[in-house]
Structures are given as structure tokens and as C-alpha cells.
Amino acid sequence: MEPPSKPGSNQVADVVFVIEGTANLGPYFESLRKNYILPAIEYFNGGPPAETDFGGDYGGTQYGLVVFNTVDCAPESYVQCHAPTSSAYEFVSWIDSIQFMGGGAESCSLIAEGLSVALQLFDDFKKMREQIGQTHKVCVLLCNSPPYLLPAVESVSYTGCTAESLRGIHFSVVAPRKLPALRSLFERASPLNGAVEPLPDYSQDPFHMVLIRGISLPGEKLHRGRPLCPYRCFMTGAPPQFVDREAVRKSLLHPKGSQFDSFG
């Protein structure tokens, strides 16, 4: 996959949101929608979505939506995918129609299934965009569960792919809580050239995990690094210790053969 393009004021973007459609995310979704989803869509749309918005197949932003579930949704499909649209207004209506049902008895979700379908969507975008060449590719994962210990099975083209398949795409993760498995997935899907820039802090809630690439959101905070033990250091007066991010990343990797390993 080609290197990621850099965003600009006149960028042509392909945007895919991959959203967990279970009851595990439902109670938190309105907060994520207000603070991150709608601002991201406004960023690519150039303003709030309107019913008259239409960018065409070639010159404007194209949006795709993938909704993934848990294994308890069988015999229904694990993943639902909406065809691409250039209307930000229509895209928001799709997101607002997600039911967030099931999954209450499950602690994991089918993240690999959702991401493999997203990769197929980017292939479709590429065919549509042949006349204009490279585009700014963005994939945003929104979920509240770690992945199952299962490989993806519904994608023909991307079965068994790894996180490296996401390189060339600006990959972001938004979750209502901090899940080590999702952070590790985000870090392993780092840019193709290996250059990792400091991440802006867009979180609007201290419990949220907001890892963003390729999108500019309002409310950015100055983020120089976080203490490893801020509360204990505050109580004892000891100097703060800062995280060795590489050591933490390695310690969070899942065992081989898991669904996370397929997309991690």
C-alpha cells in the first residue's frame, strides 16, 4: 500500500469509520459522537453536514461505514457495510441509525472482521479514484472491547492480514476507556515510513482513549508526556517517572495465533 498522503486544505479524502455495534458501546456513544465523530466529519466536510452536501465520486470526500459485532450475532453476518457516499449528511444518518444491540455477555468484539472489511472498502475507493491518483486515507476505529482470540473469516481478500496492512492509511482509535490491546494495535499500524510524531491530545474526558492520526479536531491540549505514577508521586513528593513507550508497547503484545495478532 502506498505511503499516506498529507492532509491539506484542498485534500481529497477517503474516510472509513469502523464502529462496534454492540450494547457494550451504546451507553457511551453519544459522548463519542458529540466530541469526536461529528468534529471529524466537519473537518473533512469543511463545516457542519447539510442535506445539500454532495462532493461527487471523484473530487470530494468519500465516506464509508463498517459496523462489527460479536460472535453472539450468529447466524447474522458479523459485519454490516454501507456503500460509499460523498454526502456527509447521509453518512451521519447512517451512524445515527446504529442500534447497538447484543454483545452484553461478551467481553470481546470482532475488530479484525471490521478492519478487514474496511480494507476492502479502501480498495473500492482506489478504483473509484483512478482519475485523481493518491488520496488522504483515514480509518477511525470506535469500540469499547478488545478483540477476540479468533482470526477474521468473512473477508476474502484480507483474511489473516496483520496491522501492517493498515500502513498507508491514517489509522485512529477512539474508545470510552483505555484498553492496552487497542493502543498496541494503534502503535503497530504506525505510518509506513516509521516516523512517529507526538500525538495531539484531543480527549474531552480523562477516561477516554483518543489516538488520532490524519485528522485535526477542536480542543487540542498541549501534551508533553504523562507521569507513570502521577498520584503516588503527588502524595510522596517523589519526582515523576516517565513511561518508556517502547517497553510498554512490547509488554502489551498479545500471543501469536490470536485475532489481535492477526490485526496487531
UniProtKB/TrEMBL annotation:
Pfam families: Med25_VWA. PANTHER family: MEDIATOR OF RNA POLYMERASE II TRANSCRIPTION SUBUNIT 25. Its main location: nucleus. GO terms for cellular component: mediator complex; transcription regulator complex. It is found in: Nucleus. Transmembrane segments: none annotated. This is Mediator of RNA polymerase II transcription subunit 25. Component of the Mediator complex. Residues 14-175 form the VWFA domain. Component of the Mediator complex, a coactivator involved in the regulated transcription of nearly all RNA polymerase II-dependent genes. Mediator functions as a bridge to convey information from gene-specific regulatory proteins to the basal RNA polymerase II transcription machinery. Mediator is recruited to promoters by direct interactions with regulatory proteins and serves as a scaffold for the assembly of a functional preinitiation complex with RNA polymerase II and the general transcription factors. Belongs to the Mediator complex subunit 25 family. Keywords: Nucleus, Transcription, Transcription regulation. The lineage of its organism: Eukaryota, Metazoa, Chordata, Craniata, Vertebrata. InterPro entries: Mediator_Med25_VWA (IPR021419), VWF_A (IPR002035), vWFA_dom_sf (IPR036465).
